[in-house]
């Protein structure tokens, strides 16, 4: 679920980049879970630009990251939208 941003942004410069179509999918709500190989612990609860292909689709705030198993990855596929083929390419 996407929430409306109510915080005033002043010289906000940090962002998180996604390959197409994931940034746009987060923005429109079709992607509800972010899976990355890097743990973004320092970025938790900060406002970050949501970037894809040099475009900013909005601002997001990350919750605390957690590890998942391969089984959980498959079960959560409707929320993260990463295919089995992409999974094998990105995390061999």
Largest sheet, strands/sense/barrel: 3 strands, mixed
The topology string of helices and strands comes to EHEEHHH
Q: Please provide the count of β strands.
A: 3
Number of domain units: 1
In round numbers, the mean pLDDT is 87
Structural class: alpha+beta
Q: Low-confidence parts, pLDDT < 50 over ≥5 residues?
A: none
List keywords for this structure.
92 residues; alpha+beta; 4 helices; 26% helix; globular
Would you write up a description of this structure?
The chain is 26% helix and 18% strand. The chain has helices at 22-28, 70-75, 77-80, 84-90; strands at residues 15-18, 47-52, 55-61.
Please specify the SSE layout and strand pairing.
Blueprint: E1 15-18, H1 22-28, E2 47-52, E3 55-61, H2 70-75, H3 77-80, H4 84-90
Parallel strand pairs: 1-2
Antiparallel strand pairs: 2-3
């Amino acid at each position: 679920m996407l929430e409306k941003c109510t915080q005033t942004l002043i010289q906000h410069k940090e962002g998180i980049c996604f390959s197409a179509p994931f940034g746009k999918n987060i923005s429109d709500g079709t992607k509800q879970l972010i899976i990355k190989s890097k743990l973004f612990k320092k970025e938790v609860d900060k406002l970050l630009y949501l970037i894809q292909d040099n475009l900013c689709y909005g601002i997001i705030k990350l919750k605390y990251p957690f590890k998942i198993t391969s089984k959980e990855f498959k079960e959560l596929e409707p929320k993260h939208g990463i295919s089995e083929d992409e999974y094998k390419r990105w995390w061999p």
